[in-house]
Design a protein that fits this description.
The structure is a homodimer. Chain A is an alpha+beta fold. The longest helix of chain A is centred in the middle third of the chain and has 18 residues. In chain A, about 35% of the residues lie in helices and about 20% in strands. The first copy, chain A, has a 4-stranded antiparallel β-sheet with strand order 1-2-4-3, sandwiched between helices. In chain A, helix 1 crosses helix 4, helix 2 packs across helix 4 and helix 3 packs antiparallel against helix 5. Chain A has a single domain, classed as 3-Layer(aba) Sandwich (NADH Oxidase), CATH 3.40.109.
Chain lengths: ~170, ~170
């Protein structure tokens, strides 16, 4: 049941060091590209990183990215701002969330490391990966086999629900 | 398997008219509030609408919202911009995507109707639902029992994948 993987998705920042298969990365990308997008414009691009030297550079490029130096892979989620200037952030966020749920469904672990709109992070990632100026950098996803265990959970809070009107 | 519901999630704009249970709406909201958020700030708020007169007003408030007048329910996804000025859009997008996958997993149908940053849409929705100025209006989700069938799919495109560098 998909709801289980939604609740099982937790931010996993420790990894075993075991590699992640190419097949798993492809399934994760298939999930990302199954996301909805405004006017179905699909502004997303994905840079897949497995090279240890590049992962280490990314770990240094992001203030909360230390775990990247131990990750099996990372995916930089980018959006073509010329295709969808108003909605690329939302479309790429939906794609990112799909990928995080797919990661959980596959028994892997991942964490979303925010980029845009923090320009210092974006320009550092852009420099490492050669991302062109017309592409926004939404985030990095750090991926590996989980080296920590977190329980499934919602954070359901009835105070955040408004009945018929705010 | 969660991947199935990720691929089964399609934009469903026609509904049978059958009501959606309170239990299902609660499960959908539980999924939404299981999303990750920047610094775990959880900026989200959800307005749940079932009243037919209000659904009809929302159908008029959104340029692509005609189906709302036939929907069993709608959820307006809002973000407290004072809690997370930089990341509420991304956090609420992740919550929205979780809810859309939950909808698919429950055998229901839904569509994401974009609000922010289109100010005309945001102010029209704000007026109908009494949403305060400090809350951004990310989108409306129109929900019902599916009155149209769409096949599961990815939109996987290898041209959007970059190996190690853009």
């Amino acid at each position: 049941m998909a709801l289980e993987s939604i609740f099982a998705r937790r931010s996993i920042r420790a990894y075993t060091g075991e590699p992640v298969s190419h097949e798993a990365i492809t399934q994760i990308l298939e999930a990302g590209m199954a996301a909805p997008s405004s006017n179905n414009r699909k502004p997303w691009h994905f840079v897949v990183i497995r090279d240890r030297a590049t992962l280490t550079k990314l770990a240094e490029a992001h203030p909360h990215g230390k775990m990247l130096s131990e990750a099996a892979a990372a995916i930089a989620v980018c959006g073509d701002t010329t295709i969808s200037p108003d909605f690329w952030v939302q479309d790429c966020s939906a794609a990112t969330e799909n990928m995080l749920i797919a990661v959980a469904a596959l028994g892997l672990g991942a964490v979303w490391l925010g980029g845009h709109p923090r320009e210092d992070r974006v320009s550092a990632i852009r420099a490492v990966l050669g991302i062109p100026a017309h592409a926004g950098v939404l985030c990095l996803i750090s991926i590996g086999h989980p080296g920590e265990k977190k329980e499934p959970r919602t954070q359901y809070d009835p105070k955040r629900i408004h009945d018929e009107k705010w």
